[in-house]
Amino acid sequence: MLLRLLSLLLLIALWQAASMVADSRLLPPPLTVLAVIGREAHSHALYFNLGTTLARVAIAFTLAMLLGTIFGILMGRNTTFDRLGDPWLVILLNLPALVIIVMAYVWLGLTDVAAVLAVALNKFPNTVVTIREGARALDPGLEEMAAVFAMPWQTRVKHVMLPQLAPYIAAATRAGLSLVWKIVLVVELMGRSNGVGFEIGSAFQLFDVALLLAYALPFVGIMLAIETFLVQPFERHVSRWRPKAA
Amino acid sequence: MSPAGDPKQLEVFVKRKAFRAANGEQREVLRDFSLTLDAGKIHALVGPSGYGKTTLLRIIIGLDRDFDGHVTLPPQTKIGMVFQEPRLLPWRSVLDNLKLAAPEAAEPDLTKLADDLGIGDHLHNFPGELSLGQARRVALARALAIAPNLLVLDEPFVSLDEVLARRLGSEITTLVERMGITTLLVTHDIDEAIRLADHIILLGHRPAEIVGNIDVTLPRRAMTADYAAKTKAQIGAILAETSV
User: Fold this and answer.
1) Cβ neighbours for B186, distance < 8 A, ≥ 6 positions apart
2) Is pLDDT above 90 for B235?
3) Closest residue in A to B129 (Cα–Cα)
4) Which is the most buried residue in A123, B18, B58, B233, by most CB within 10 A?
């Protein structure tokens, strides 16, 4: 923990040093950015935009994880389903994010629904691929045990299947959060009039690097906090049964 | 053999069971095979590995339905199964493993059962923290927790040391006798079968058929060394005859 903090401090020090060498318009020093963050926070624009973006991230992420997990399990467990779905999956995986975003906006208009769907559709195939691996690796012995003991399906899902999928779900979550929020910014830049992505777009047009960083950094901070305080404790909780290394 | 339709008995009839090998050939494992288990008795199914013991067992407990024939179980049969590997849920505590298999069992009963099997101190451990012998006991407790009328044990003492295997064996039979559970014990160990069973079924040949049916008239504690030796000689004679 101390080492992590130290490495973070080193990054800020490097930033400070670089800003002293470079033109302050191209790379403003940390304190200037902090001042801009304070200004934006005072006008509540920061909270509003962060909140809007966070809500979009949350909805798109939940949608992609939920549907991706269901389809991943189905495809991992059923070969017919896997063969049917695989070509679609390959197409979705290789469709550039930008194409999906533009098509969503063209077809559904410049709306929040289009924005969130476009993001979810970008994350969805990755989730399916990860969870499918997990579903393929499910222990048939435990499944037979559950069948012989006539466990109801709720018990099988909750106590037999999901604990086996937990590492895969955690991996998909970790990869998913970072992917989703990056794409949300692009979607906002292209077709929304609020959110962090929109503000960064304005900052770009004004060549205002301080404003850009003032929006980007707090969001990175939030994502870091989610990873540290939600994802990692969840992982520790679901792997508590594993014998610890001596 | 008693007439068919006795609701207290378990009857298995397999007209044909075959596996398709990777090269497309059909390999018959069982043909015209029938087996009856008497209520409340301990039956040992003995035979070398590869003779269809596990296949037969999977048919009886309903995991394999791809065969010609039928299995007749008494109405509302609850099957308690002890697999060769314990097959516990490693991410749930010992107590939760029991509860998940037997949701309607009362917790004091489960604790009592765990105490009887010597795992009472481990109820809040995870299976990964147990030795193989302890894990086997948990698997057995789980099978008994559902108050089964049929207990199926697949080589439950494999890879335990001799002393432990003997002790666990006599503990199991004591419990099963007390509860009056019809039991099918699959083993390759003839001594174990003689020591534990009321009735020994010898499997031989391929496709498997029953080559010997031995009633143990002095089972378990009633057994004498002399009687055990005689029974073993009898089984040896049958096996020698059929292997020619």
Assistant:
1) B44, B45, B53, B54, B57, B152, B153, B154, B155
2) no
3) A243
4) A123
